[in-house]
Amino acid sequence: MTKPTDLTLYTASVPNGIKVSSALEYLEIPYKMRALDFSTLEQKEPWYLEINPNGRVPAIVDVVDGKKTSVMESGAVLLYITDKYDPANKLSYPHGSAEYYEMIEWLFWQVGGLGPMQGQASHFVRYCQSDNPEVQAYGTNRYVNETRRLMSVLETRLHKQAAKGSKYLVGDHLSVADLACLGWVLFDTYVGIESSEFPLLNKWQDEISAIPLVKKGLDVPKPFTIKEMVKNPEAMAAASATGRNWIQKGNEAEKK
């Protein structure tokens, strides 16, 4: 097994960040962590754009035997981690197996569907302040409903897996497909979707997020408190205001 000599994770307490830190912790890969400050647009600074030209999180820089590799995009990072540091397939499946391709399917499904749609739902529910209430209502309904539909797809998948005796999205054990989706499903109530709508999905997220090493990864770079926060209107208002501020600041910077 190739061992990392100097792996650094650049991240923040967002869905795409916590799914990578959870994978690193679950595989017990030693790493350093650098939390990026969105409020100062640190993710747009030249030094970070050299690592991740897209100016988003997460990204990793891995140095092995003097050779440096930078990887951006959470799905690509998860595949890099499992390809390089998971020879026992603790969080993956053997290349070429049916389970491997199913894992890839659900990983790509998340990064191409659930993440983008739920991200837009978060924007309209928590951050958008349109002067036109019809526009805001349309955006909110469009993306929240699509997120709900995608979560129903996960619920159906878990039902099919349960019929085979599995509680995971793919095969018979936890994989990066589960962690990729978990990072977003944990934010369900943040966009106004109640976990009770999807009983199996609710049980799935509770059980996986309670795994000690996964829980450790969810708390990177700071304790994961979204479930508690959404129950506190004042805390949610403050968090929404903070998020709205850095999103607007980022928008202005990107115009330039």
Explain the overall architecture.
There is one protein chain. The chain has 256 residues and is of the alpha+beta class. The chain has two domains: 6-85, Glutaredoxin; 98-229, Glutathione S-transferase Yfyf (Class Pi), Chain A, domain 2, CATH 1.20.1050. It is 56% helix and 9% strand. It contains ten helices and four strands, in the order βαβαββαααααααα. Helix 1 (15-26) packs parallel to helix 3 (74-85) and helix 5 crosses helix 7. The longest helix is centred in the middle third of the chain and has 31 residues, at 133-163. The chain starts with 5 loop residues before the first strand and ends with a helix. The model has no long low-confidence stretch (mean pLDDT 93).
